[in-house]
Amino acid sequence: MRLADAAATAAMGRALAALVRPGDAVTLSGPLGAGKTSLARGVLAALGLAGEAPSPTFAIVQPYDPPDVRLPVLHVDLYRLDAPGDVAELGLDEFRADGVLLVEWPERADPQLWHDALRLTLAVAEDGARALTAEVPAAWKDRWPPT
């Protein structure tokens, strides 16, 4: 899927927000500056967050709860973690039963950790657009791609 600019990336996030439900994990991969946080911000905005969501790069985990959003979301950035085992200390699986995980830099965790996640990868094209690819697990087959 081609996302022409930052506005298109945010729009894809808004479309994704219409599809997520409690228990979902969505992973966002790609190089620095590819648009992972922009896509997550689109999701959060469409779920009702007023104002721009901060990047969770330094906090690592940024929680959002109703009434600020229509369902609980943890926006997670694993970029600064030193080892895959560090993810267990974050308590993400306990949260997931009632909320949605948006995970940037999932490759810094055990690859089997979110085996049922919708895995989105963003790449920067030569013209500055973004190429979005998806690995779609069974739980998402009837929901992806957004229409």
TrEMBL record:
SUPFAM superfamilies assigned to the protein according to its UniProt record, in alphabetical order: P-loop containing nucleoside triphosphate hydrolases (SSF52540)
Keywords: ATP-binding, Cytoplasm, Magnesium, Metal-binding, Nucleotide-binding, tRNA processing
Molecular function in Gene Ontology: ATP binding; metal ion binding
Location relative to the cell: Cytoplasm
Cellular component per GO, a single term: cytoplasm
Superkingdom of the organism of origin: Bacteria
InterPro entries: P-loop_NTPase, T6A_TsaE
Primary residence: cytoplasm
Pfam entry (one): TsaE
Stored PANTHER family: TRNA THREONYLCARBAMOYLADENOSINE BIOSYNTHESIS PROTEIN TSAE
NCBIfam families: T6A_YjeE (TIGR00150)
Record family assignment: Belongs to the TsaE family.
Name the UniProt record assigns to this protein: tRNA threonylcarbamoyladenosine biosynthesis protein TsaE
Lineage: Bacteria, Pseudomonadati, Pseudomonadota, Alphaproteobacteria, Sphingomonadales
